[in-house]
Amino acid sequence: MKKSILQRMAEEAVNRGESVEANASENPIPARRHSSPVITNVGKSLTHLGEDSILSLDPSRIERSPYQDRFNDDQDAEAELEALKASIASEGQKIPVLVRPHPTKPDHYQLAYGHRRLAAVKSLMADAERPETVKIKAHVRSLTDRQLIEEQAVENGVRENLTWIEQAMWAVQLKEAGLSHRAICPVLALSEAAVSHLFRVTSVIPTDIIFAIGRAKSVGRPKWTTLAELLKDDRKITAVRKLLETTEFQSKDGAGRIGMAIDRANGIIATEPNAAPEAVNFTLGDRLFGRMKNSSSGTTITIPKKEDAFASWLAERMPELVREYDHQSDRVK
């Protein structure tokens, strides 16, 4: 087994003729009583990585962690993935991923951290003429479920920070896995009050709306809290869901999508900037009797001033036309 990073540093000092114990006594380092859970885990991970062997594995045999801490199908994430893919293609994979042997599938693995690196290498594998030649560098270590979660916390806390809503949805995953609120706190490096707020928001906003908005890279707690307060009314949830399939909503980034969702929940319906209202002209030959326009606020009929006589005639006939329409509607029903 390879020696740890700290062991190698100590041996190098001895080889240079230095006394590790003497240096330690001459320049004592004060003990730190308090340390962030993420920083503590980083120290443990560095020691473990010094002891692990780096293997070249078949990327297709590596599955994601059973604890999903990141969103799929997000525009921001896709752009970042393409940049990483190009970097690995030109310069190679510089940092190995960490995996554990799959608990139920022989010769398969589950990812602890390195989600974006794995996705980039798998994409390169799909594009390669000889996919079997594409490998991924990985540390392999036996991990319990709890240790797997802790290793994910290292990556999220140091290298690839989760957005606020990704943290919230990961907290949901951890709770479903059986972790208590108190146990989730060190994993996310958050206070109990902060973790409780994550659950208050995710208990109100439906999952489909959260994933439709996406990881929302630039959006923090205040906007998600605002949306959650609005969606306590089920009618507003229905209104926001109608928005999710529109072209304008899908074309926005995370900040734009949550902004549109909040507006819709507040009853504000924006019209598409380049969409002209549908119009129907009532004509006879070259003569224009009126024009009907549809807009987000309703339907308007405009009759030219020179057709005032037609307007008066239509106003007199309107009660009869309404009755005729109502009678036909009853027959259709």
Secondary structure topology:
Blueprint (H helix, E strand, L loop, with lengths): L4 H11 L4 H7 L10 H15 L2 E4 L4 E2 L11 H17 L5 E5 L7 E5 L1 H13 L8 E5 L4 H14 L5 H13 L4 H8 L3 H11 L4 H7 L7 H10 L3 H10 L3 H5 L2 H12 L13 E6 L2 E9 L2 E5 L5 H25 L1
Parallel strand pairs: 2-4, 3-5
Antiparallel strand pairs: 1-5, 3-4, 6-7, 7-8
Helix pairs in contact: 3-6, 4-5, 7-9, 11-14, 12-14
Structure in words:
The protein is built from 15 helices and 8 strands. By secondary structure, it is of the alpha/beta class. Strands 1-5-3-4-2 form a 5-stranded mixed beta sheet. Strands 6-7-8 form a 3-stranded antiparallel beta sheet, with no helix packed on it. Residues 1-39 and 272-276 have low confidence and may be disordered.
What's this entry about, in short?
The chain is α/β, with parallel strands linked by helices. 53% of the residues lie in helices and 12% in strands.
